[in-house]
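Journal club prep — side note

Before the paper discussion, L.F. wants everyone to see what a predicted structure for a comparable chain looks like in token form. Sequence:
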Amino acid sequence: MDRRLFGGGRQTYVVLALLLLFGCIALESASRAAGRSATSPPVQDSAPPRTPLLADKLALVSFQNSPFPWRGFLPGTRKPFLFWQNGKRRTHTNESGGYYWEDPTFMDRRSLLYIPKGFDIRQPALIVVYFHGQRAELMRDVRDRQQVPRQLAESGLNAVLLAPQFAVDAFDSSAGRFWEKDAFTKYLDEAGGHLAALHGGHDARSRFATAPVVLVAYSGGYQPAAYAADLGGADERLAGVILLDAPYGEEDMLVSWLSRRHADSFFLSAYAMPPRDNNALLQRQLTELGATIHRRLPMVLTPGTIVFFDAGDHVGHEDFVTQAWVTDPLKRLLGLIPGFTRSAP
């Protein structure tokens, strides 16, 4: 021990008195802090409270793993997706023989991200990935004309929306990078970080990184949807596929995915006259494999359910996402998915 501290003398008494005084002050401060913590929760400056969102959040976000730009080869060939036109600009020729310049048609890296008011990161959550059809732009068509964010919000699902831009305002169904093996799961992995940043919750990233996914494809979006389902590498997360007035090909890829994952995922195709023959072909292929086909809309879309719903000849193609056999059919179909009800309005 330090003999000077406990020895006799005036200096020692002064030191002891000062120590006693500071000790009392520290004890009083600690008591006041304890009293405050007992009556009010601690303030977390580093992260917002984990409560349902008080307002919608929507953003256009650039992705590294976006479908475009992309300069690979067409599937199963050594034919480049883009070629030089007059030695000056890269261009792509679609299935009808029309051509589009790479810039601006195949240069948009953005995806539309949307989180509805009332979304609760603490509850089971779903990611809805929407593939638009031909002649589409994210804000003009996905948000405003097809009303996809609004229909998602009104479905009651505790879900968020991802909608990547494919060919910009073009008669083209190219999947771009999504033609590649495992490209879709790379896109989802990147999306987890972007969704977390938009949400703002401190544990949102880990939850979005593992949330199940439902893929919705309208019209020409069938092609990237077929590749994403069959080759995208997201089998463990893909809870279901919904086709709206599609497909127009790639039936074998959809059969391949369903043959692997039918017990763990659902499949629903709602269509009118244009893709009726393609849906008939897909039904035959699945029936030959022993699949049970339902032709009426079920009460719920549970794993293992396969539905082909003919909306009738009176239903038009251009407005199928908003006006089909009912108004807002996407809202109706999303509302059939169980287990992800949003508790907050």
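L.F.'s comment for the group: The chain has two domains: 3-39, 57-68+109-334. Keep this in mind when we get to the figures.
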